[in-house]
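Take a look at the protein record below and tell me what you see:
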Amino acid sequence: MQMNMPIPLVRDLVLVGGGHAHALVLRMWGMKPLAGTRLTLINPGPTAPYSGMLPGHIAGHYGRDDLDIDLVQLARFAGARLILGHAQAIDPVAKVVRVEGHGDVAYDVASIDVGIHAQMPDIAGFDLHGIGAKPLDEYARAWRDFLARAAAGKVAPEVAVIGGGIAGTELSLAMAHALRAAGCAPAATKITVVESGPEITTRTRAARRPLMAAMQALGVTVVTQARVARIEADAVILQDGQRLASRFTLGAAGAFAHPWVADSPLPVTDDGFIKVDAQMRVAPHDDLFAVGDCAHMSHAPRPKAGVYAVRAGPVLFHNLRASLTRAPLRPYRPQGDYLKLVSLGGKTALAEKWGMSLAAPVLWRWKNRIDQKFMHMFRALPQMPAPTLPRDLTDGVRAELGAAAQPLCGGCGSKVGAGTLTQALSTLPAPTRSDVLSGPGDDAAVLQTGGQVQVMTTDHLRAFTDDPAMMARIAAVHALGDVWAMGAQPQAALLSLTLPRMSEALQARTLAEIMAAAGQVLRAAGAEIVGGHSTMGAEMTLGFTLTGLVQGRALSNGGGQPGDALILTRPIGSGTVLAAEMQGKARGEDVAHLLAQMARPQGDAAAILADQAHAMTDVTGFGLAGHLMAICRASGVAAQVDVQAVPLYPGALELAEAGHRSTLHASNQSAAPVQGAQNAQNALGAQGARAALLHDPQTAGGFLAAVPSQGAKDLVQALRDGGHCAAIIGALEAGPPVIRCV
């Protein structure tokens, strides 16, 4: 019999930064992965803006999403783990990258593509009142806010740009166009470009005249041979004392290396850029590469331009694979000249090459086609063939897989269904020991240990992210939820871990990340990791067995009373978002937001509710409806839920409307039907999507508490003041256990 043996992971390839070259590497890796390599991308955010479309976005021709490469979707396509955090340092000898909020990430081969910044801290007041043209996302966010306030008349439409090079002039034109399009009066609009030289800087003298003409047409003023002394909230003060009115001051006077790069032990130029050879290696470190604007090509110096990073992508992809397979590397030979297309505010552009220039609307359309073609590579990632099923299948296999034969979800979406579990638990006899105070069915067991009441629980999760540290944080918060929901203080933890097959070196690295992240969460909650068990298997699974100590009574599902208000402390929809993310359909920003929320501990929320709650549980695998039904059954009451009041994670409703469902959804819906939900939602035009989310399995979900109606609003306010997205979502009422949608 032929067996498909899984290939162990043996080496780590780490990409630091989501620049253009790395984005191309990820796309190519997804189409041609290298077995045995664990690929990691480190980036501050879930998206990476494409610089070529920034001026068009600032001018208002493109929306924010139009210029963003979704790194979450791209990482999923490439089979890479994505670590969201700022790189802070690199040690090329120890071969580790330090990531803010994460710790050290080890590598065997790494590449750096973190771009540049345009902050100007040497100018007094810039940190408080200025913004650099790079990083692009920070500039774009600040500009959108300023433009909205200027259009509403809340701030004067006055802008100053420090730097009269191509970047400064192009962005000044874009901002001038946007202010006019927003309805700002031309007489009140002031755009000033401050240039230290005698005239604006262009690649060719022929380009200077059309650029100046475009600036004059849009009312942009150029102040030459000027140096900035300081920046104030409403002005730029020049060294000669001249005061230039500005409510939005942009720094575009050059490209600066990130401080952590410039101060690293890597070989860098005098201005802090990483020196690389013809193969893009950071000599003498043959296992480290650098590319894009953060790198200096010693063999072929070139200006900072995105076109070089794009052209370098395929060569970098080859050389990274070659380093991991001991194959020959290729040199990167950048072109001597390139076509520069400069936007002129409106939908017209200037072309520069070979010392010549031309401005025309048709050139903007040409530029737009080039930019859209590049972005299309990441908006429409290739559909790789899915594993095919055998021709002959046992009857029932296709029904179990479902019509779409989607992969099994991670987290709570992969749990055993509520009906099956309830049936299994019903076969257990009632406890006979006097020190076992509860039977199966609640969040945790309640035990009497000497004169102390102790709770004990166990929970584990099938991984839904390849970032071990993030998975460890979420799994710890998820397991702690059972202890907190009982009103207990966490005490001790045992870790249960299954790792996919990998080399001992990668095992050690992975365990170090997991232990550091889990330990941080558990120690902050008052618990200590005292041991556990580890093994290797087909995939990563993380779990914890926890004990907690109760002062007073232990909360349970029972105890809810008619008239109690129902408080939910965290949004729902995590199962739907995670299921869609597995298919590359969820927005990266929504996924990043979800992961951050799930990793946030909730002990403070439980403490706020514990003294007032008649009944409390954490909402996990059986969904909001399933866990509410457990309270209803244990308390002998009915419940009504205002589905419009239930908070949802960003993106969850849209994905539910598109038909995305977690693996456990159908089972949850059968186990805890909600009366009137479908009709109520159809009347609201959501076609049942909100009702469907009531059955969505949650991972590290919020607390559901039944509290006296008097004072419920104060509890919600206290939770919100603590940063929790809490809401009153309904009430308990007299009657047999049933949930009604209102």
